[in-house]
Amino acid sequence: MSRGLHHVVAQAVVDRGLWSPGQRVAVAVSGGVDSVALLHLLHRTAGIHRGVLGVITVDHGTRHDSAVDADLVVAQCAALDLPVQRVRLHLGAGAPEAACRDARYAVFADLDVDRVALAHHRDDQAETALLGLLRGGGTRALAGMAWRRGRVVRPLLGVGRDALHQWACSEGLVWRTDPGNLGADHLRSRVRHELLPLIEALRPGSAAALARGAGHAAADDALLTGLAEEAAGTGPLTTAWVASAPEPLVRRALLVRAPDATSAHLDAILGAARRGRGQVFLSPCVSVVVDADEVRMQCADAGADGLPSRPGPDTEAIRERRCRDGTVTSGAHGVPDR
């Protein structure tokens, strides 16, 4: 695949409708091999996908040399004659991966563009599916990352890591390697460096099969979500419905309204509804309150209120709730750091 990779990626953009000709596309480039390869692939095939390309690079300020990564991105954009926006954050050494991701997506949400292209690829998708299994998640967790959700698009989801890296090497591309991606301190890193290679050794092609399975789960998830919304309606959920309706529909209706809820949270909410009362904390400042009539969300900074509607497209990857004291809590959605 590596020799014709640019055609594969361009065709994916067109076939999956990731953007339309003339739309402004910000390519998120960290300086790592995956995002640098995505940048060059999209630049080379601009005549096919016809997006108007620009670049966003976010320096999280978590390493003493992190500015060098951004310098590399800026230099490559100058060579390609592409506009680039450089954003410097000051998260500090040791900032959690989730905090970096949330801050980065907040930057993306503020961009004046039509699409934001990320470099997640097929092996990232396989890792995400495995992490969903390890968390005991349902079809939503197994579905992994979408080719497109809101303004966020992922043109490389059909490309394996090895093919992408081989193409980058064959083209003589230059990139920076984040030492954090080489370690095995976090669960995703161990899945990447230990579990996936073991699975591939036991059954070659497993990563591709997991990614395909994620695609099937995404289709199932979309159907189930539609059925749940049709059954539950758009208003507050009644306790009687939560307690007695088919459990898969109830769980999905709850997830639509409280996307940060884990399987354990959902189990607790179902138990409370069957008892007719209870309170389940999703975070220190957000809880789901169950009484005899309704199941509703209660926020520390807003008081009791109905469960919110589905998050907007620009917040799907941030999943944040702000409390009166300024703290932010985010769900662990298994989206790899880029």
* Strand line-up in the sheet with most strands: 3-2-1-4-6-5
CATH topology term of the largest domain: Rossmann fold
Q: Could you name the ranges where pLDDT drops below 50 across 5 or more consecutive residues? A: 302-338
Shape: globular
In terms of DSSP E residues, the strand content is 15-25%
Please describe the topology of this protein:
Layout: H1 5-15, E1 24-28, H2 33-44, H3 46-49, E2 52-59, H4 66-80, E3 84-88, H5 97-109, E4 115-117, H6 122-134, H7 139-142, E5 148-149, E6 152-153, H8 161-170, H9 187-202, H10 206-232, E7 237-238, H11 239-244, H12 247-257, H13 263-275, E8 278-283, E9 286-290, E10 294-299, E11 303-305, E12 320-322, E13 328-330
Parallel strand pairs: 1-2, 1-4, 2-3, 4-6
Antiparallel strand pairs: 5-6, 7-10, 8-9, 9-10, 10-11, 12-13
Summarize the structure.
This protein has helices spanning 5-15, 33-44, 46-49, 66-80, 97-109, 122-134, 139-142, 161-170, 187-202, 206-232, 239-244, 247-257, 263-275; strands at 24-28, 52-59, 84-88, 115-117, 148-149, 152-153, 237-238, 278-283, 286-290, 294-299, 303-305, 320-322, 328-330. It is of the alpha/beta class and 338 residues long.
